[in-house]
Amino acid sequence: MELSGEQWLRDKFQTKGIRVGQKLTSLLGRYVEAIEFFFIATSDRDGNCDCSFRGGSPAVKVLDEETLLFPDYPGNGAFQSLGNILENPKIGMLFIDFTHQQRLRVNGMAEVLDDAKLCEWFPGSIQVVKVTVEQVYRNCSARIPILTRT
Predict the structure, then answer these.
(1) Which of 63, 78, 141, 146 meets the CB 3.0–4.6 Å disulfide criterion with 67?
(2) What is the CATH number of the domain that holds 116?
């Protein structure tokens, strides 16, 4: 059996993997909801990637340990990320707290919803994205700069 790229590199550098969960604990859910912005990674059906900034107040609403929502606000009208989700529902989310030098990754399956009731949580949003969580893990805090507001 052939090794995954991750395992091959772990073997090469003699490192262990990290603990990956499949649910948002209540602590992680509160953390995600407190972050004012995050980044998403998507790709289309051919694997062409896109990375996008997302923010708002709130930026994310956690419904339960396996489900979260984030808003889609009017922007440049290109719909690269959400268009990708329509073709390939896999999504990666990166939450970074630059004040406390912490980060969290959430990977899962995304679905674009045109639901006025759900949009009420995010005033001004035109639709929402529902993410079914498949992986949750913390990342090393090394090299996260400390940023403060002035």
Answers:
(1) 63
(2) 2.30.110.10
CB atoms within 10 A of CB 141: 12
Q: How many Å apart are CA 76 and CA 70, to the nearest integer? A: 18
- Give the pLDDT confidence of 87-115 residue by residue, as tens digits: 999 999 999 988 888 899 999 999 999 99
* Residue 33 counted as domain residue: yes
CA angle 50, 52, 113 (to 5 degrees): 95
Give the structural domain span for 40. 18-138
Number of structural domains the chain divides into: 1
State the pTM of this model: 0.91
The closest of 121, 109, 126, 133 to 74, measured between CA atoms, is: 126
DSSP readout, 71-119?
EE---SS--HHHHHHHH--EEEEEEEETTTTEEEEEEEEEEEE--HHHH
Asked if residue 131 is part of any domain, the answer here is yes
